[in-house]
Structure formats: C-alpha cells, structure tokens
Write a structure and sequence with these properties.
alpha/beta; Glycerol-3-phosphate (1)-acyltransferase; two-stranded antiparallel sheet; 12 helices; about 50% helix
Amino acid sequence: MKKRNRIIDYMSYLAFRTAETIFHMFPLDANLRTARLIGSVMWMLINSDIPVVNKVLRRRHREQIMGNLHIAFGDRYSQQELEKIAKASCQSLVMFAMEFLFTGRMISIYNWHQYFTLKNFEPALKILLENRGAIMLTGHYGNFELPGYLMATLGFDMVAVMRPLDNPYLNDYIVKAREKHGLSLLYKKGASASMEQTLQDGSILSFIADQDAGRKGVFVDFFGKKASTYRSISLVAREMKVPIIVGGSRRTSWDKFQHEIELEDIIYPEDWQGKDDEVQYITERFNKALENMIRKDPTQYLWLHRRWKSRPPEERRLQETTKEA
C-alpha cells in the first residue's frame, strides 16, 4: 500500500473543519439547498468536455454511474430519465455529507420526531426492546448514517461495523463525533470475535451491507446481476441465531431535513434453518430487501458505488476462455 502523506492528510482535515465551521454559521435547511446546487455542479462537471475535468471525472465517474444505472434500470427508463436519476444521486450524496455535519448538534431524544418518521418499524422496535442481540443492515441509500444514529440516540446499544478512513485525522474526528452521541464503532478487519461478543451482550450490530467483497464474497443477484457480498454478516447471524433487520433512511424533502426510516424486511433464524445453503439464503434475501428499498426511489442511491466490481468465477473463466480464443 502506498504510504500516505501526513501533511496532505492534515491539510485535508483542516479544510474539512474550516468548511464545517463556515456551514455551521447557517441553518441546515439553507445549507441543504446549497448542497443540492453543489451536487448539480458536480454532475455538470462529470459531463463536462473540459479536458482536465474530463480526464479526472468523466472517464471514471460518469461511466461508473451510468453503467450501474443501465444494469439496474436500462430496460425500464430512457437515457434521459437515467441521466436525471444520476444527477439527483449526486445531489443526494452532497446533501448526505451536509447532514452529517449537523446531525450531532441537532438530534436529541427530545426532538428526533421533528425530523424523522418511522414506517412499518414496529416489528423492528419489538426486537430491539428485547435486548437479545440483532443485526441491522442498510445500504448506501439516502442518509445511511441515520438509522443507527437514531437508534443510539433513543438509547439502544448500537455498534456500527466500519472500515477506517484512509485519512487518520478525519477518521479520529469522525469516530469521536459518533461515539460522543452513543454510537460505538468496531473496525471490520479481524472483528469476528468482537461481533459475536457484541451480540452475546444483547447489543445491535449495524452494517452497510452493499459493499463489494471481492472474489471471495458470496455472489447473489442484485438488480439481476451477480454482486459480491461479504459473508461475515450471514455467518455471524447464523452462528449467534439473531434476527437481521433490513431498512433505510429515505429523504422525504429535498429542501429541508426530513427523513423516513422504513423497515424493509426482518430475517428470523427460523427462516434460514434447514435451507440447503443457509449463508447463501440469508445473503440473497437481504440483498433483495435492499434492492426493493432502492427501487422505491433510485435517486437516493449512491450509483457511483462500485457494487458490481468483482465477477463470479464462471464469468471470469468465460472471459479468460474468450481472451485465449
């Protein structure tokens, strides 16, 4: 791995903190409108013919976004409609970043209902209140930090599994900000024993579950194309016999801070017991739940995300055979 430049990392951290200070001079709703504008400019630059911009953004990011959208919706939407979804996805990403700066200062156990509504969430709350351990999953959709953050604010013992940021200064700052408001963090690498202990203690493990897991992941259908998924979620759920709660936070207004946290599915231990391949079944089911959630409003998914990066063995063998021919 290439050694990082600590000076550049620290300057990036200072730039982040400076921007945070400036944005905090204005109300969040006003900043969200600014974020939408920045997202629009971002999409415009991705589509730009300016040589430098084209080299940095268009070749990689536009092809990634539009390629993913064609996989998911190429047979349903026109090119113009896909472009609109792509632009809105960029806006949603910047709005998520803006909301992240304000969440800790705004949300408390006394006022959370001013910003959130819970949809079909009663079965999930019942599980959380039992304090017997559970897994909560979401994807890169809407504000994917909010479900776990809100549950921690409401007093549930939440432990989020994460990959540390490459910038150590930003990572330390964000970790402290999350922990300050009751959300514990667990680094993903080598965390199997800690995850099992967390569940044994009756806490809730929180994952972002739509990340590419490389060639060794479990390959399941996601919008009709095989996608690699980490098997650790299914393995720990099977081992500890805990339910899996799948849902997400959907923005209900593009002009102010309003979100709907919806339960999409609950996978109970009895659902997978007796299946020929329990890990495959669990992984397929929560990916299908995430897909159903995204279909309700595809503009709020992070289509820049390389969800289909890794290919299953049969596809790789076919590619190798084709090259040899």
